[in-house]
Amino acid sequence: GGGIYTKAADVGADLCGKVDKDLGEDSPKNPATIADCVGDNVGDVAGMGADLFESFVGAVVAAAVLGASEFGKKGVALPFYIMMIGLIVSIACTVYVRVEKNPDGSPASLD
Questions:
Q1: What residues does 101 pair with on adjacent strands?
Q2: Spatial separation of the C-alpha atoms in residues 57 and 59, rounded to whole Å
Q3: Is residue 10 within 8 Å of 41, Cβ to Cβ?
């Protein structure tokens, strides 16, 4: 994807605006402010996704290790079966998610 290019534009905007022209973080005088903001968001979202995945995998592996110490091979498999059931149910439930539409066809506000 274009995440790495957005992040590079973010770094370039920071360097050019702050160091070269002595402008503030999100100064409207810096034409690269939009790239800076988008790059910050890309970094935040990617970091949050990585943290969630790491926590999820850590919990499953910890449960598998505890299961192995208490119940052997069956104890290792149980956390993975539970994870698989959760994944299947999550995918199946996406069918029930609906986005309301305005009369003009645009998505409704989430207010």
A1: 107
A2: 5
A3: no
DSSP-derived letter for residue 42 is: H
pLDDT at residue number 82:
94
Report if pTM > 0.90. no
Strand stretches in 1-111, DSSP E: none
Return the H-helix or E-strand segment holding 63. Answer: helix 33-71
Calpha distance 87→45 (Å, rounded) = 22
- Angle at which helix 3-14 crosses helix 33-71, to 10 degrees, equals 130
At 80, the pLDDT band (50, 70, 90 cuts) reads very high
- pLDDT > 80? residue 53: yes
User: Is 37 within 8 Å of 5 (Cβ atoms)?
Assistant: no
Mean pLDDT of 50-68: 91
**Closest of 45, 38, 46, 51 to residue 8, by C-alpha:** 38
17 CB neighbour count, 10 Å cutoff = 21
